């Protein structure tokens, strides 16, 4: 269903991105932001899933400035490599990877002719939150268990578009008291908690929880249908 294209960021850097085109009329576009495992088969499947719902979906390679062609699995060694790459990208001088996400948003708007939403998982959830607060051209954002989103520094940001955030009750990376603090700081954000672990949306991880994943997807699709129409 998809193909890889090259995006041009504001600084001229070429960034690969996976694009999935819907069949028939396009409802709008969704930018899909990876976990710390690259634009792997799971992220491509997520993009294909949004395309099947009528959205042009694009997943930029958020690790490209640190290492090209990253596609990891979910073993312990993969997690270690992914965390190292995330650390390297986070250390880039500003705007760093945010200009690559902006390029994906701009492409999605032009290619779809409609409004653009963004969804991200794990580290991608954090980048989705930052995108909602700092980037241009978005109409809705849906971070899933964004590591770091509930920290004091990130809570201080103000979203410029409607946000729906999904968290997991048993997430060892995101303590529930910080989720509560995030909810208090952002009453305008729709926050949902699930009886699951970090990574519950990914059917390639041991943490996958099918009922939670299905409910979060249903809510996310309704949210995008409302704000991208």
Topology:
Elements: E1 2-8, E2 14-20, E3 28-33, H1 41-52, E4 55-60, H2 76-90, H3 98-112, E5 116-121, H4 123-134, E6 140-144, H5 152-155, E7 164-168, H6 176-185, E8 190-194, H7 210-227
Parallel strand pairs: 3-4, 3-5, 5-6, 7-8
Antiparallel strand pairs: 1-2, 2-4
List descriptors:
229 residues, globular, alpha/beta, two-stranded parallel ribbon, 7 helices, Rossmann fold, 8 strands, single chain
Account of the protein in words:
The protein has 229 residues and is α/β, with parallel strands linked by helices. It has a single domain, classed as Alpha/Beta hydrolase fold, catalytic domain (Rossmann fold). It is built from seven helices and eight strands. Helix 6 (176-185) links the parallel strand 7 and strand 8. The radius of gyration is 16 Å and the shape is globular. The mean pLDDT is 97.
What would you say the CATH architecture is? 3-Layer(aba) Sandwich
Total DSSP E strands: 8
Share of β-strand residues: 15-25%
Helix content: 25-40%
End-to-end Cα distance, whole Å, is 23 Å
Q: How large is the count of helical segments?
A: 7
Main sheet properties = 6 strands, mixed
- Poorly predicted runs are none
- Output the CATH class name: Alpha Beta
Instruction: Report strand order across the widest sheet.
Output: 1-2-4-3-5-6
Derived structural class: alpha/beta
The Rg value, from CA coordinates, equals 16 Å
Multimeric state: single chain
N-to-C series of helices and strands: EEEHEHHEHEHEHEH
């Amino acid at each position: 269903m998809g193909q890889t294209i090259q995006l041009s960021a504001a600084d001229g850097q070429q960034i690969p991105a996976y694009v999935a085109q819907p069949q028939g009329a396009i409802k709008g576009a969704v930018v899909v932001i990876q976990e710390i495992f690259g634009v792997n088969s799971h992220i491509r499947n997520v993009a294909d899933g949004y395309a099947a719902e009528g959205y042009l979906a694009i997943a930029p390679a958020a690790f490209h400035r640190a290492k090209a062609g990253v596609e990891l699995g979910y073993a312990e060694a993969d997690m270690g490599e992914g965390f190292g790459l995330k650390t390297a990208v986070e250390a880039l001088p500003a705007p760093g990877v945010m200009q690559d996400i902006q390029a994906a948003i701009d492409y999605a708007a032009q290619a779809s002719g409609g409004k653009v939403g963004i969804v991200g998982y794990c580290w991608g959830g954090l980048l989705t939150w930052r995108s909602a607060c700092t980037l241009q051209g978005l109409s809705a954002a849906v971070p899933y268990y964004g590591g770091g989103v509930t920290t004091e520094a990130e809570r201080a940001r103000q979203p410029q578009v409607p946000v729906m955030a999904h968290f997991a009750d048993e997430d060892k990376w995101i303590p529930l008291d910080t989720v509560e603090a995030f909810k208090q700081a952002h009453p305008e954000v729709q926050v949902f908690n699930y009886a699951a672990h970090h990574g519950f949306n990914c059917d390639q991880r041991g943490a996958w929880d099918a009922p939670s994943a299905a409910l979060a997807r249903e809510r996310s699709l309704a949210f995008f249908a409302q704000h991208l129409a």
